[in-house]
Amino acid sequence: MRARRAGITTSVSPGPPSTAASAPPIRAVAPRGPTLAATGLGWVLLYAIVAIGPLVVALTADPPPGRGFLEELSVALGFVGLAMMGLQFAAVSRFARVSAPFGLDVVLHFHRQISFVALAFVLAHPAIMAAERSVDLINPVAAHWTARAGQLSVVAVLALIATSVWRRRLGLSYEAWRVLHGVLAVVAVAAALIHVERVGHYVSGPWKQGLWALFSAVFVALLVNTRVVQPVRQLRRPWRVTSVEPERGDAWTLTLEPEGHGGLRFLPGQFAWLRVHRSPFAVREHPFSFSSSAERPERISFTIKAAGDFTSRVGAIPPGTRAYVDGPYGVFSYDRNQGDGFVFVAGGVGITPIMSMLRTLADRGDRRPCLLLYGNADLGGAIFREELEDLRDRLDLRVVHVPESPPEGWEGESGLMDGALLDRHLPERPERRRYFLCGPPPMMAAVRDLLAERGVAPADIEFERFDLI
After folding, report:
1. Which of 205, 290, 275, 179 is nearest to 234 (CA)?
2. Residue range 131-140: mean pLDDT, rounded
3. Are 219 and 189 in contact (CB under 8 A)?
4. What integer is the mean pLDDT of 124-141?
5. How far apart are CA 85 and CA 160, in angstroms?
6. Is 462 helix (H, G, I), strand (E, B) or coil?
7. What does the DSSP assignment read for 83-98?
8. What is the pLDDT of residue 468?
């Protein structure tokens, strides 16, 4: 899955357990639905409180004389924008407790979308002030240093969003973009804090200064956690590449074993961030789904389709290479919400987290009925095709391949997944199954709508996006 993953997969190859597996593995526990819902609501409320907190502080201050309503409104909008900018660091810090109720992909999607809202607040402040007082406030030559600090913050935010939206058009590699993104984010928030402090009208008094000091300290702590604390934890739990095996569809299965620890417990369908050939402090890391069984934490695998940059070089990684894994993340798993049976819909490399689920069901001896609808450009690109056939003997599994361009003499399904195809293969009571979709966004959107038309509740449909970055 890559980047909600951009094509992440993992698979665990059968074999003797690693000698490092003698230590007890970390257990991944799936919280119950109501608990997750309550936790998620709590995080939403906390976000709202922190976002408007600086505004409340500002409202308790005595405004400078001669300020009109619009000027005070611009200050209020600026404070909200600053708080939202600071909260962006929390959104990308990969705190498991924060992402658990929503899924890291949803959190990162929120991070992207809320950036535009924060930008609107940030731009409103200087625009209104310039209209009400003087355009010199936005003139970097004529403005004083207090205003220039605010200008620098606004320019940094604009550059941050522009380089994110048009990264590929600008020719920025993912690694270069990550470095630039981090630098611009730090500059934007730091310059804004300096601007507020130099203005001084709204942060005067010991308790307000203390609150702003706390805000700044939390900002620094989030950076230290992301860039220092989390990498140090990964440094203590290294992995070693044991094999790199070719798969159908121009994909490779990268299998890892732990060095000096008991491996990694994850839920089938989750993903992790992977660094190979790099230290955990390096910016070059990529998200991939586990395609291996969650019952075998001592050997994890990522099945990665060549799509450019790092993914195109996976086949050349030599066994013995050191690697670091940050995870698990994600909520795309039947272990979170059980059902009487499952329907999996995969497109291309979207089979990888679903393969993790199927392998886990097989290792658990779980005989609940499963249907897999697997679409590909052609039958030759169907990753895991042979193993899927073998899994029929270990599972109550029915596999339906749906190639867009079928081979000559093919008598099975072909083309796109439409309503007629679903009607031919879905169980008699489709609303009684749980559905997991992973593949191209247009395919998932179409299938989701078709399932809704057939009485499947939205709560019973889960999907995995491969566009985190």
Report:
1. 275
2. 72
3. yes
4. 77
5. 11
6. strand
7. HHHHHHHHHTS--HHH
8. 52
Q: What is the DSSP string of 343-391?
A: EEEEEGGGHHHHHHHHHHHHHHT----EEEEEEESSGGG-TTHHHHHHH
Q: What is the mean pLDDT of the chain?
A: 82
Burial class (CB in 10 A: 0-12, 13-18, 19+), 294: buried
CA–CA separation, 331 vs 464, rounded Å?
9
Q: Which residue has the tokens 């609808």?
A: 373
Q: What percent of the chain has pLDDT over 90?
A: 37
Averaged pLDDT, 407-430: 91
Angle at 292 between CA 289 and CA 296, to 5 degrees: 130
Q: Which two tokens stand for residue 51?
A: 């976002």
Domain 236-329 top-level CATH class: mainly beta
| Burial class for 366, CB neighbours closer than 10 Å (0-12, 13-18, 19+) | middle
Instruction: Map residue 232 onto helix, strand or coil.
Output: helix
Sequence spans of domains, the chain:
62-202, 236-329, 342-464
Buried-exposed string 99-111: b where 16+ CB fall within 10 A, e elsewhere:
bbbbbbbbbbbee
Whole-model pTM: value is 0.76
Q: What is the pLDDT of residue 248?
A: 92
Indicate the length of the chain as a whole number: 469
CATH number of 342-464: 3.40.50.80
The answer to whether domain 236-329 and domain 342-464 are alike in fold is no
The closest of 138, 156, 45, 36 to 96, measured between CA atoms, is 36
Kindly tell me the burial class for residue 330, based on how many C-beta atoms sit within 10 Å of its own C-beta (0-12, 13-18, 19 or more).
buried
Residues in contact with 66: Cβ distance below 8 Å, sequence separation at least 6, in sequence order = none
Q: Is the peptide bond before 238 cis (omega within 30 degrees of 0)?
A: no
Cα distances from 53 to residues 80, 84, 124, 215, in angstroms, run 8, 10, 19, 10
User: Cβ distance 193 to 212 under 8 Å?
Assistant: yes
